[in-house]
Design a protein that fits this description.
This protein has one domain (7-133). The chain contains six helices and three strands, in the order H-H-H-H-H-E-E-E-H. It has helices at 7-30, 35-41, 56-66, 70-82, 88-104, 123-133, and strands spanning 109-110, 113-117, 120-121.
């Protein structure tokens, strides 16, 4: 994929991410979460990028697994309904991280590439695609 996605599409996806981030932060505050814990753990899901040490395909796979809403929502739901509510704030931090990433334009990675995402092309590859599309 070398084309740049339409701004109308990526803007909506980024706005969705911002809405999720705001909702997760508000919920975290309402539940009385510790803001120091929030600050320390907010970037923890990015440790999934260490999967790239096993190669770009493994890296995109581990990143994508950790950066989908399915796992933190499952964690939060199980925690809530089983009475393990101490885990809910961690699920909210995780959801907030994903929302933050989406809001600033970091999307799910295409297999084997950290520069091609569902939100478009990033970094050097974006500059090259924009240049190629303007010719």
């Amino acid at each position: 994929m070398s084309e740049v996605l339409p701004r109308e599409v990526t803007s909506l996806l980024r706005l969705d991410g911002l809405a999720v981030l705001v909702a997760a932060v508000i919920a975290y505050g309402v539940l009385g979460g510790n803001w120091w814990v929030f600050a320390v753990l907010l970037l923890a899901p990015d440790l999934s990028m260490l999967g790239a040490l096993a190669g770009p395909r493994a890296g995109s796979w581990t990143y994508n697994i950790v950066h989908t809403y399915a796992l933190p929502i499952t964690l939060g739901g199980i925690a809530w309904f089983t009475g393990a509510t101490f885990l809910v704030p961690y699920a909210l931090i995780w959801v907030a991280h994903i929302g933050m990433d989406r809001a600033v334009g970091y999307g799910l990675k295409f297999p084997g590439s950290f520069q091609h995402t569902h939100l478009g092309v990033m970094g050097k590859a974006r500059k090259e695609a924009t240049l190629a599309n303007s010719r």
